[in-house]
Amino acid sequence: MRFSRTSKALGVAAVLAMSLTACGGSTGGGNTGTAGGNTSKAITANGTEPQNPLLPANTNEVGGGRVMDLIFSGLVSYDAKGAIQNELAQSIETKDSQHYTIKLKSGETFSDGTPITAKNFVDAWNFGAAAKNAQLNSYFFESIKGYDKVSAEKSTLDKMEGLKVVDDTTFTVDLAQPESDFPLRLGYTAFYPLPESAYKDIKAFGENPVGDGPYKLAAGGWKHDTSITLIPNDKYNGPRKAKNGGVTFTLYSSPDAAYTDVQSDNLDVLDQVPPSGLQNFKTDFKGRFVNQPYAGNATMTIPSYLPEFKGEAGQMRRQAISMSINRQQIIDKIFYGNKKPAVDFTSPVLDGYDANLAGNDVLKYNPTKAKELWAAADKISPWPAGKVFTITSNIDGAGNKEYITAMANQIATTLGIKAQLNPIATFKQSRDLINSKKLTGASRAGWQADYPSLYNFLGPLYGTGAGSNDGDYSSAAFDAKLKEGLSAKTVEDGNKIFNQAQEILLKDLPVVPLWYQAVQGVWSNNVNTVEFGWNGVPLYYNITAK
Predict the structure, then answer these.
(1) Residues in the chain with pLDDT < 70?
(2) CB-based contacts of 249: which residues, under 8 Å, 6+ apart?
(3) Locations of Polar residues compositional bias (predicted)?
């Protein structure tokens, strides 16, 4: 991003963005093909059915997220290495990291030709924050002054006092406290603008959205549970201009079927090889694969509302379950060594990552200690006779069924209890069940970064009331550390405080960290210039057909 000279956030954001040194490219051979190609031909990729209608403030999962990031653009976006670049922002200025003046590029429009103005941003952010609209990404606006009032339960307020429209191309943002990394967040889905037409029937708009990104939804393009077809948006003038004739996402229920299709050149890009292909994908796709770490992790959520996991006994049970999991064995046997056991709640590719946090021994395989902790918990509050520890997960994702079954077996063997996978057919169905807060056991979880920051792996997931806080975890001490870290003068100082917040999580274990993610992606003989970004997502707009 090109900030003006008055912005103190320039050095902060640049340092953080350029810190993604582990995401440079393939680690196992293969190349991204030759430049050029047929820019008028569409490409195909795998996808999953979005959980909800396509609204910026209500999309917080990968199936909808990858579509949203192509049909919308915000003030900024992120390049392949995670560095921020201007989209609609002309400048983002601040003298104190609390009061921001944002100027838009003039002449930009939505895909229907409607001008994009400052009001489109302010209205969209207010809509996303207001409690009455019940948007999953509401939490992302918590930094803005007045969010606490509009987001309060049963609040009828719909405008945050920290947002002001100055003119058609200028608006101001006042935060509740100084936050030096605020500009870095502004490329995330929640901060996209909406045209005024959206509010006439917001649900209908979500089924057929009008965006401002490099693509737009084709007429009748969303065939639920089957495919989503995007075509280039000729009104888009940003840095992610489409180099192909469109992207069609085929919504697979089986990752193995997707792998077979890309092998036979019936699918162009697959963003995650299933376990059945991990042993041979490098030879199956010579010169057409990538194997690289990205800003993502896998975890298991144990909801705070489960009675067996409350209080001191519950804390010991969480620790016992964590220590009963042999992460490296699962990685070796199921993922063929293509992941790395987690020792914290974030990702090694991020600036500020610390592999030596106090208390992270709880994430190491220790069956003896696990049995001791489980027995100690039983003395306080016995585990219900015959109760099965279930782990809910969709089984349409690559490796979910295999690794959770193996993990359940390890837990059962070590702790002497019954444990098993609770299979859900699709990702959308599993997210609906998890969001209902009615689980009777644990659930599969994980995080793909929204923007390159330690905070993004902490606040949205474990902050009290956060939209992606699946387990309803709440800790006043943790919330206070988040607030302290956000208000730090530099990202480096903030990261030290965020790691202190992680030490609280290591005691409470609202989720059990499992491993850090790496993307094993492959592509067909029909495409060129395939590159995967810092967050493990292909740069679809850059792919060309042969």
Answers:
(1) 1-36, 397-398
(2) 44, 45, 46, 47, 66, 67, 227, 228, 229, 230
(3) 41-59
